[in-house]
From TrEMBL:
Gene Ontology terms describing biological process: regulation of G protein-coupled receptor signaling pathway
Signal sequence bounds: 1-20
Every RGS domain range: 40-151
Protein's UniProt keywords contain Signal: yes
Chain spans, region Disordered: 157-180
A Gene Ontology molecular function term of the record: G-protein alpha-subunit binding
Keywords from the UniProt entry: GTPase activation, Signal
Pfam families named in the record: RGS (PF00615)
GO CC list: cytoplasm; nucleus; plasma membrane
Record protein name field: RGS10 protein
Transferase found in the keyword field: no
Length: 180
């Protein structure tokens, strides 16, 4: 029985393989930075640095309000208490959805919310609109971002840092070998 349990654990939780420095070997490393951003918009939006670079790009395209609205909706979902929800809902409405909004997002007209719904807010009240904006970014801005100078320059500097770190690690290994 214990042997089967042990095999089960090995199969579902394989031991991590480390290089000589105690770091996971390259085959077990997860993607980081621009490599992870390039796999999906979701991954990009989970990384604060990715959001910063994407905002910088969208600002140049005059559509930064899209990611700001998406982020505001994500934050809104975490809001506790009716009073706080009412305040944040009104802020989102006035900033992004009202006809007089300072940073109006481009959502389908029939999807717009009326101000009356702001009195009884709920965490997912902006979900349909947020999904529209997400899809707009995913199928429009995101692909252009991945080809932009902002993304490509950041990727290049990331690769240079990585190569420099690898060279330093190799030098440390060599010095240990020769100093023993």
């Amino acid at each position: 029985f214990f042997f089967l349990f042990f095999l089960f654990l090995l199969f579902f939780f394989p031991p991590e393989i480390n290089d000589g420095e105690g770091h996971p070997s390259s085959s077990h490393q997860t993607l980081k930075g621009t490599s992870k951003w390039a796999t999906s918009l979701e991954n990009l939006l989970e990384d604060p640095e990715g959001v910063k670079r994407f905002r910088e790009f969208l600002k140049k395209e005059f559509s930064e309000e899209n990611v700001l609205f998406w982020l505001a909706c994500e934050e809104f979902k975490k809001t506790q208490g009716k009073k706080q929800m009412q305040e944040k809902a009104k802020e989102i409405y006035m900033t992004f959805l009202s006809s007089k909004a300072s940073s109006q997002v481009n959502v389908e007209g029939q999807s717009r919310l009326s101000e009356t719904i702001l009195e009884t807010p709920h965490p997912l009240m902006f979900q349909k609109l947020q999904d529209q904006i997400f899809n707009l970014m995913k199928y429009d801005s995101y692909s252009r971002f991945l080809k932009s100078d902002i993304f490509l320059n950041h990727k290049k500097s990331e690769e240079q840092e990585e190569n420099s770190a690898e060279a330093q690690t190799a030098a440390k290994r060599a010095s240990r070998i020769y100093n023993t």
